């Protein structure tokens, strides 16, 4: 019988040029546009992309933003990603906006009135996770899958990488021994490229990014035939021209690559009153601080909410095997020290800011907190509470 502590695990990432990620970027741009004018604006924006077309739909409440202004910002998103192709171009894409006023029924349940505190924007379950597999306390397969694509995108945009186009995917399989990542057993990279590159040249261009992204000790045994670059052959037609895209279809890519459960809701396109987003962020924040404090090698947190109700209905914490006796104390510390109402989460993490467009690709977690408030949920400033 195989040792249950030893296993293979795989995670994937997709680039900012993937059709679904183009949609996430545009939806989060809309959120930021409204929050920049009014930190208490309400936004729920979905985006659809297909061949040379973008459609916005959803609900907003807050400042008036002219449709032409939003459409111009959509073009700027597409341009920054790098699309100026015959099938999808920032210059010529047809862009439609069907955003409308927020439902009065939703507003009634969410708003604070009289002695009623602000309620959650929807029912649902949200998860946060952290583990000590990487320096940023993320599962290794998704962390390095993101890193490969991020490095490729940086050089593609700064002109160092010629012939590689915006749409790409990565996938890493890792061997775990005694629950710890031991080595990479395969890497898959599929990347869009220009017509004048053959597959041999694509491989030559991409291999250095694998070696740059993944620590040498994890890939020292990796053989050439375990690295798959464009395994189906050429990849010239890509992005929304090759496949339609929708906001919120890459929620496992956005979080932990399948290494932890995920709630039912996507993040992108939602303002921070939506607990799909804000509660998932605070759950990650709590889990990361618990692991950073040395309490356990892994921490999973689940929060549950009901629409219109302020406080979470339940808080669940799971630690590594052998640390189960610490859970009750941790649950008490969380309840005593953290206000996990929608308002409390936003104030704790400073979420009423235009900080979301940058989250739309390469993961919402395992990122570096910025002085402007981006990725505030990645801080480890509550370690003392748990120690």
Explain what this protein looks like in three dimensions:
This protein has 387 residues and is α+β, with helices and mostly antiparallel strands. The chain contains twelve helices and 13 strands. The chain has helices at 19-37, 67-81, 104-110, 140-157, 199-213, 216-219, 239-242, 251-254, 275-292, 327-337, 342-349, 383-386; strands at residues 7-14, 42-50, 53-61, 84-85, 88-89, 94-101, 124-131, 164-177, 180-193, 227-229, 245-246, 298-305, 314-319. The strands form four sheets. A four-stranded mixed sheet has the order 1-8-9-10. Strands 6-3-2-11 form a four-stranded mixed sheet. The chain is flat. The model has no long low-confidence stretch (mean pLDDT 94).
Radius of gyration: 21 Å
Helix content: 25-40%
Mean pLDDT: 94
Largest sheet composition: 4 strands, mixed
Enumerate the spans where pLDDT stays under 50 for 5 or more consecutive residues: none
Q: How many beta-strand elements?
A: 13
Determine the strand fraction and express it as a percent band. 15-25%
Between the first and last Cα atoms, what is the distance in angstroms?
Answer: 39 Å
Give the helices and strands as they follow along the chain.
Answer: EHEEHEEEHEHEEHHEHEHHEEHHH
Structural class: alpha+beta
Shape: flat
Question: What is the spatial order of strands in the main beta sheet?
Answer: 1-8-9-10
- What's the total helix number? 12
- Described by its quaternary structure, the protein is single chain
């Amino acid at each position: 019988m195989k040792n249950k502590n030893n296993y293979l695990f795989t995670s994937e990432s997709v680039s900012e040029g993937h059709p679904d990620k183009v949609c996430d970027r545009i939806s989060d741009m809309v959120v930021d546009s409204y929050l920049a004018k009014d930190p208490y604006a309400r936004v729920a924006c979905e985006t659809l992309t297909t061949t040379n077309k973008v459609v916005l739909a959803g609900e907003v409440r807050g400042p008036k933003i002219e449709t032409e202004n939003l459409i111009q910002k959509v073009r700027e998103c597409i341009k920054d990603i790098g699309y100026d192709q015959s099938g999808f171009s920032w210059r010529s894409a047809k862009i439609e906006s069907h955003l409308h006023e927020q439902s009065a029924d939703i507003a009634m349940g969410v708003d604070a009135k009289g002695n009623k505190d602000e309620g959650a924007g929807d029912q649902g379950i949200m998860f946060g996770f952290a583990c000590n597999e990487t320096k940023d306390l993320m599962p290794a397969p998704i962390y390095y899958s993101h890193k490969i694509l991020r490095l490729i995108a940086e050089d593609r945009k700064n002109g160092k990488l010629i012939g590689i186009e915006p749409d790409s995917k990565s996938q890493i399989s890792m061997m775990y021994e005694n629950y710890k990542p031991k080595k990479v057993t395969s890497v898959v990279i599929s990347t869009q490229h220009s017509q004048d590159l053959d597959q041999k040249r694509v491989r030559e261009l991409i291999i250095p990014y694998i070696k740059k992204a993944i620590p040498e000790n994890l890939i020292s045994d990796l053989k050439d035939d375990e690295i798959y670059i464009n395994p189906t052959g050429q990849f010239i037609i890509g992005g929304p021209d090759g496949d339609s895209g929708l906001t919120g279809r890459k929620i496992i890519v956005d979080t932990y690559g399948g290494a932890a459960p995920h709630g039912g809701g996507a993040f992108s396109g939602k303002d921070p009153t939506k607990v799909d987003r804000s509660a998932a962020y605070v759950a990650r924040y709590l889990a990361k601080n618990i692991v950073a404090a040395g309490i356990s090698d892994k921490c999973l947190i689940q929060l549950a909410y009901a629409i219109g109700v302020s406080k979470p209905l339940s808080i669940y914490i799971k630690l590594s095997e052998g640390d189960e006796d610490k859970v009750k104390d941790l649950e008490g510390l969380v309840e005593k020290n953290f206000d996990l109402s929608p308002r409390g989460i936003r104030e704790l993490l400073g979420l009423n800011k235009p900080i979301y467009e940058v989250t739309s690709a390469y993961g919402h977690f395992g990122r570096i907190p910025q002085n402007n408030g981006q990725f505030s949920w990645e801080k480890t400033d509550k370690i003392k509470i748990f120690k």
